[in-house]
Design brief:
- This protein has about 100 residues and is an all-alpha fold.
- The protein has a domain of about 60 residues.
- About 75% of the residues lie in helices and about 0% in strands.
- It contains 3 helices and no strands.
- Helix 2 crosses helix 3.
- The protein is elongated and about 105 Å long.
- About 0% of the residues are buried.
């Protein structure tokens, strides 16, 4: 009789531990979700770190190279020196068939 109670108790404990493993707050699916989220965040962090490095190179160039300032003004703000003529070429969209 006691062996049957011990066996039943062990089966119940096994069932509870399996429930926690598959469906609880520390389940395998939760671990997978957190791993995927971590991977996405790591990729985003790498992208942002790369962008930060690019911006730092640009800041250093702007601090040390006067031509970099001129290039920035020309590309972003349409700066034209006195005596220059600004020409904008618009690509042809092609003729309809």
């Amino acid at each position: 009789m006691t062996a049957r109670i011990v066996l039943t108790l062990l089966v119940v404990l096994l069932g509870l531990s399996q429930y926690q493993l598959w469906f609880g707050t520390t389940s395998i699916s939760e671990l997978q979700r957190l791993t995927d989220e971590f991977d996405r965040q790591s990729a985003e962090n790498e992208r942002l770190a790369s962008r930060n490095e690019e911006l730092m190179r640009e800041v250093i160039a702007l601090k040390t190279d006067p031509e970099a300032i001129e290039e920035l003004l020309r590309s972003r703000f349409g700066y034209v020196k006195e005596g220059e003529i600004f020409v904008r070429l618009i690509p042809d969209r092609g003729t309809p068939d």
